[in-house]
Design a protein that fits this description.
globular; two-stranded antiparallel sheet; alpha/beta; six-stranded mixed beta sheet; 208 residues
Amino acid sequence: QSLVREEEDANVRAYRLRPDNPAVNKWLAKAGYDVVFNYGLISKADKDAASELLKRVGGQFITDADKDYARQLKDWPDAWGFSTRHYLLMTNAPHAMVFRFADECESLYDGMRIFMGASLPLRESRKNERLVVWLFGDEESYEVVLQTIGIRKNPSAGAAGFFEGGSKRAYFFWASRLYETGMTADPYRGLIETFYHEGTHQALNLQL
């Protein structure tokens, strides 16, 4: 078992040094690793741990062959992409955070559909178009990328996300200064609460 683990660690290190090594990629694929475009490796163990969540949200790793993702890459070239039933997530955050966030995205969408009811149903995205959310793993990249593409961030010092009607995107970032307050054991609670507020604006924008 230890020898197998050593071989796995060696191949992971080799991939990080040279991602285009065919022998290494073949070994990792056989071991159940996913090589995620613009991100890197996700192990079979990590996928297995999140398997129920990924199935629930219809989660898929995507490449620039996905036309919607390719369009978003023009504004954020180094973001990796994750698709769910109703959302396209552009992100530079760790996959564990993205999986959790994706679950909340679909929970909000399902909740909104129930809330709207039969008399005013939540319109499905036009032509299967997904709601686009940009999730930054840190505050610095959030500020730099938005400034680069000419989007004004929310001026409130306590705001860590907003929906922007012009681009129809919602932008969020995680930062310990905002979320690790000691009031909750869940470091992502503040991020999720912010998303539920701004994500509601985004979902209702479908009605316009």
